[in-house]
Structures are given as structure tokens and as C-alpha cells.
Amino acid sequence: MGAGLPDSPRLTRPTPAPAPGIVHLGPGAFFRAFNAVYTDEAIAAAGGDWGIIAVSLRSPTARDQLAPQGGAYTSVTLSETGMEPQVIGAIREVLVAPEDPGAVLAAMSDPAIRIVSLTITEKGYCHAPSSGALLPDHPDIQHDLAAPDAPRSAIGFIVSALARRRAAGHAPFTVLSCDNLPGNGALARGVISDFARRRDPDLANWIAETVRFPATMVDRITPATTPERVAALAEITGYHDPACVFHEDFRQWVIEDDFTAGRPRWDLAGAQFVANVDAHETMKLRCLNGTHSALAYLGYLAGHDTISAAVADPVMARFVRHLWEAEILPTVPRPEGEDLPAYCASLMARYRDPSIRHLTWQIAMDGSQKLPQRLLGTIRDRRAVGQTPEGLCLAVAAWMRYVGGRDETGAEIDVRDPLAEALRAASEGATSPEETVDALLGFEAIFGTDLPADAGFRSALTLQYERLLSLGASGAVAVLLGQ
Ligand code: CS2
């Protein structure tokens, strides 16, 4: 057996764990490639008790990978010249909430914890993506209102911990959302306050008066870790680290500087502290995540398994440029310090990097939670000035084709989405392309009520959907580009 395989020695923690200061909910690959890296470098540069207690809300996997290594793991920068490993020591431990919710609440109630940060994905906020409002009938919300000492959702844990801090006379922690959502700070405040009000209006008032919810824009392309990459890393390091993560070199973190009791010197690791994040967020969600989703559905249907393969197709690459220039950038205010055309050119370079191998299937996940902020907001803005963004309509039509569950060869698609079953049933119940579009537009939590009522949008969408069925993804894109 080669030296790089699991019989290699396990990675061990190189330095003592920093004293705790942050509880992080959602210790997935993105968090390990981003927040924890910035925090590790900030502690190295300026010290401070900002060690991270990570909490898995669902699976024990991260804990099982990290615990034998004392929380240490390898963050690996990918490029065409190879892999660049960096051992990260900022994580102290990982708790598994379903196993011991009391331990999680105890950690979050400790006054030493001054920040609770989140990378729980869009669906973790138990909200209606089209409005941002809390879903009171969401099973986790129902559960957590009934069982405050054993919550399941991030919202339930945050409100229970804040209740305990208030009762003990401790200051609250800052809630730092790091998910790809517009106004993620305000959204977190909204769902948490709504939940708290249902539990205890006085607690909700205290939260409104004392808790800070700064907004952030987060950016680093982080494909899922594969066994092949874990083995490749062991080959070059001589140790085995199943908790390792792989990502591009680029990273950008823009943070509203609004914290109750301090924060690490993330600025010394390159983070940007600003008064208002909105413009950066809109730029990133529409230009990067919007075209990521367009490429995910059209690329997958066209047979491209990765983003780099999709943009290596000249028709798809031209399509992405068309989206930026003609449909997206007219809706994006220029953030201070940014040059929008140059930003898009750098996105294309990031997409082209073959060493990243970011799967279209991975990005295609959870479309029902992603479409509103990535595509539909831009469509609304174009419609509001009398324009019909056909390219974005084609991207939405491709999502509709994708959630139907069969690709262009008739093969089954493994659609991952909290609404996958309902979306599939709606598609299968339709007897014509028009009916399919109507049925899917009927999902108000995704499309709201305004877009389904917009006849211009409906007919543009139906036209693109029909073209997808008759010409395929590549053909429909070519026709749209006038080729
Ligand atoms: C991707 C994002 O999976 C997805 O939905 O679009 O994870 C994307 O890679 C990051 O937001 C980049 O910062």
C-alpha cells in the first residue's frame, strides 16, 4: 500500500488550542476553507482568545474527522501548479448537537463566547426564500418552540442560548451570518426575532435592543473533498488528514463592523471591514453565484460535469459574458474599490481553473433556496425597467428542466433540494411545457406572487423552456446568442 494511504500517521495538532471566543454553527468544507483560516491567521498575527468551538447540527462526520487530530486540519490551496497545504489550529473542538444539545447550549451561554457565526446554508434559516420571513410551520421551528432545551435548528439554539445569557445577566454574543443570502445579517435578525417573539416577547425585546447582527459577503470557491484528494494530500505531506479541505487561492470577506464585544483582527488576514456590505453582496450574489447557478443547470444538462469544463465550451463562455454585460451588471451598483468589468473577468479566470474541479451537480443543489437571490432578484430589476432578460430566463428554465429529474439522455438526475419531491411531482403532473412552467411558478416560497403574475416574464420563460426541450441546453444557448 502506498505511503499516502490511511496507514500514514494521522495529522496531529502542532500548537496548543487557542482559548475559546467563537461558537461556529455548520463546520462544513466552506467554513474550514474560509472562516477558520482567517481566524487562525488573525490569532497568529494579533493573538486574542478567539478559539472556535464548532457545532454540527446534523451529522457527527466533522467531529469524527477532527477530534482525533485535536481539531487541527489542512486547508489546501489548489492551482494548476499543484497543492499548497496549510495546517489550521483555530478549531478547539467539534460538538454534535443531536448527541448532546445541552453541551452546545452550555458552550453558547459561556460569557467567554462573544461571537456565534453561521455557515448553515440557505435552507438553515427556516425561511421563505422569496420573502425572508420565518416559516412558522417548519418542522424544526415547531420542534424548537416546544423543546427549547433540546433545539434542532440554528435559530432554536441561538434563542435558547440568548435566553440563558439574559437570565444569568451576561452580555449577548454577536450573531455573524456567513451564508450567501442578501442582507444576511438582517435576515438572521428577522428570523431570530420572529422566533423569539413566539417564545417570549420580553426576550424578543431584549434581543432587539442588545444583539448585533452584522452582514457579511463571503467568497471562496470550495469544491467538495474527495477520497482521491485526501490520498493525494497524504502523498505530499506524509500524514493522513480526512478533515482536509480544498479550495482556490482567491478569497474575499467583507464584514459590517458592528460587534457587541469585539472580534478577531480578521483585517490582518485580509478581511475588509466596512460600514455597509450591501453593494459587495449584490455584486457577488448576482455576478458569481448567479452565473454559477446558470452554468450548473445548463452545464449539467449539456453534459459538463465541472464549471471549468462548462466555460471551456465557447458557447457557454460567451453566454456567461452575455449575462454579465447585458443582464446582470445593469442591476449592480459598483461597490467602493471594485471595478465591475474587471471583477467579472477575474470570475471567468477563476471558473476556467481546471485544478478546482467544482462539480455542476454540487452547485445545482438547493436551487429552490438559491434562485431568489441569485437570479430572480436580477430578473425583477430588469422587468422593473421594462426589459426582458432572456438569458436569465433561460437559466431559470434550465432549473425547471433539471428539477424534472431527467437529463437530456433520459437518465435520472440525483436532484438534491428540500423541495425536490414536490418540484418533481409538480413537473410530472403537467401535460405540456406551458403547464410545467405554470406549475413550478406556483411555488410562492420561490417565485413570490409578482413574477407569476408578470405575463411578459411567463412567456419569455415558457419560450426558453420549450427551446430547451426541443434543442437541448447547448442548442438553446446558441439560439439565444444568435448563433
Ligand atoms: C456555489 C457557492 O455551491 C454553490 O452554490 O455557487 O458555494 C460558491 O462556490 C461560493 O459562494 C463562492 O464563494
Task: Give a written overview of the molecule.
The chain is α/β, with parallel strands linked by helices. It is 48% helix and 11% strand. The chain is built from 20 helices and 11 strands. It has helices at 29-33, 35-46, 61-66, 101-109, 139-146, 154-168, 184-199, 201-210, 227-237, 278-301, 307-312, 314-328, 340-352, 360-363, 367-384, 390-403, 420-428, 433-441, 444-447, 455-480, and strands at 20-25, 51-56, 73-79, 82-88, 91-96, 115-118, 174-177, 216-219, 245-247, 252-256, 272-274. A 5-stranded parallel beta sheet has the order 5-2-1-6-7. The protein has a 3-stranded mixed beta sheet with strand order 4-3-9. Helix 15 (367-384) packs antiparallel against helix 16 (390-403). It is globular, with a radius of gyration of 23 Å. The structure holds D-mannonic acid.
